[in-house]
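User: Please work through this fold.
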Amino acid sequence: MERRQIILGGTSLLFFGGAGCLNLGDETEESESTSETDSDDDGIPTEEDGTNNDTASTDSADTTDTADDEQTGQVANNLNVISETGTVGSDGETVIELQLTVQPAAGSDSIDLSEIELDLDTTDWEGTLTQSASGETPPEEVTAAPARDEFGIEVVTASSTDDVVATDNADRYSLVIDASGDGTVQPLSAGTSVDVTVSLPGGTRREHVLTVPDSLAEVSPGDAVSL
C-alpha cells in the first residue's frame, strides 16, 4: 500500500492508499487540552476564574466590614428617655413645664447635653429649643430661657455634678422645657399631645409623644403629672 505524507502548516497529514486515512493526532490533543483548562465553558481558563472569584470574595468581605463599621459609628452615642413628667400651672388646667429624664444608652461615649436639640410639634405650634451654654458650664447655670427658646438641664444623679456632660450609663439628667407661653412653647391643656424629637450631635434622633392626662381636676397647681 502506498503511503504519502503531506505537511501543511506544521500539521502532519498521513494518507494510506486510496482510502485516505487522516491523522488528526495534534488537533485532538489541542482540543483535550482546551477542555481540561476551561471546564466551565465560559471561555476563561479555570485557573483564571479561581483568581477572579477570590478577588471578588475579598472585595465583598471588605465592603461588609466597612458597612459594619459605619453602622457601629451611627449607634455609638444614644440617649434613653426614662421619664416624662409635667408641672401643672397655677390655673390648675394646663401644664406649664415639661421634664424629660435622660440617661446615656449602654455603650455610649460621653454626651454633651448642651449640644442637644429638642424639636417640639403640636397641632397648634412647633419650635426648636437649644442651649447656648457649653458642656463645662455648671448645671445650676444651664437654665430654661423661653424668650431665647432654650431648654434647661438639671442633674438628677451623675458621676460629676460640675458640668452637663453625661459620661456614664448611671448618669441621670433632666431636660427642662418652659411651657409658660413666654416663648415658642405654649401651655398644654388636658388631653393635648406634643411630639418631641431629641437630636444628638452625631445625628442620633429619638422621638417621643408626650400626652397630658385627659383631666387635671384631681391634681393641684405645682403638682407633677406623668405624660
The first strand starts at residue 3 and ends at 8.
